[in-house]
Write the structure tokens for this entry.
Amino acid sequence: FSAYKALGEKTKTIDLMLASIKLTAKDVKLFMASAAIGAGKPEIARQVYQELADGGSDEPTVYTTLAEMYEKNGDTAKAITTIDQGLAHVQDKKELLITKLNIYIQKGESQKAIELGKDAIAADPKNASIYIAMGNIYDYKLNMPDKAQDMYNQAIALDPNNFNVNYSLGASFF
């Protein structure tokens, strides 16, 4: 049994080594940044993500994670600049648009959030979360219940069993 176990461990090691041969420098940096976060070393992660972003990475996670780090440290302007930098380099912009939308919502910049929400819906029209966020802005920030209800109904059409949107639609009538 122990010989079989030892062979299994060696096989796993060989598989990992073969996989690592195919890694690019970008992959190594992404793993390094992720490991730094896991090890409780966010400054190292921030440096690596910033290097990737400055190099024009096409990975949305680079920009969203970096923006979240800046936001957590109270630097909202740098978070938004980071997302904008990513929008210039990333093919699939959905994740970046949603992150920026959430920043604007948290900052209380409802009009900017609405405009960005429209862009996010155009990029990802089947994402119920965007419609819910838009409904919440219209309902709680702009006091526009009719528009809120329209957004909630569109979210329900996409995700009819979503408790939050059903609750929000009901609450919008009061």
Notes: The longest helix spans residues 2-21.
